[in-house]
Amino acid sequence: MTKYVIIMTPMPELFDSHCHLDFPEFDQDRNKTLEQCWLSGVHSICIPATEARYWPRVLKQAHSVPDSVRLYAALGLHPYFLKSHKPHHLDELKVFLTRHSETVCAVGEIGLDYSLTDSNRDEQHFYFVRQLELADRFKLPVILHCRKAHDEILKQIRQIKLERGGIVHAFSGSEQQARQYIELGFKLGFGGTITYERARKTRQLATSLPLSSIVLETDAPDMPMSGYQGQRNTPARLPVVLKHLAQLRSSSVKEIARATTENALSILGK
Prior knowledge:
The protein is 39% helix and 16% strand. By secondary structure, the protein is of the alpha/beta class. An 8-stranded parallel beta sheet has the order 1-2-3-4-5-6-7-8, sandwiched between helices. Helix 6 (175-183) links the parallel strand 6 (166-168) and strand 7 (186-190).
């Protein structure tokens, strides 16, 4: 009688490279959300802070990691909240990066947002460049927010060459710009946008760029995926992005999961 041994290959762990788990939208069910993440295969999450006042809570969450999902803390000053930033926050960021060097995985979320018509671009530039300099000083990667400013951001990161590169969150630039980021040591984040058929440009980029340059993200609680419009986004839905990316690239879910997790760890891993 022939005996067959069935070997079960576990699904590779997923890494949500961009999720604002510290936002108030998760205050009522944050632990439950993390349980759902674990069950769905999302075992690592990077939480990028947006304002100085939120740095302590992001660090607290990273320090109080449950036995399941590992949380990574990134600290930065987001260009969207420019009116909340003060020059002394840059000095405070330096102190935080010094005191919490074992916990902070990146400087972020930082960048330029030229889609904001009521925002001072010179001030945006000031905070962005100073934070790049801090990332360089502390040998940390950066998590970039960019809207209608890729050429300017590329110019700055060519001048301040970061040893560990970083991640361009929710990449929406051209293929040429994408390849320039890759040459500079950056990974590109793809999330819920690729679940919409109308997002042809982004879906094409997710298909044609090297898999070694791609990381997955949700940007939860924002950027709901197709089929979930009007609902709070959650990191537990990262497998939806994974499935769409695998279909677009005609690859197996396991291959995409393994590669994108390794890519995220190569940038954010401590």
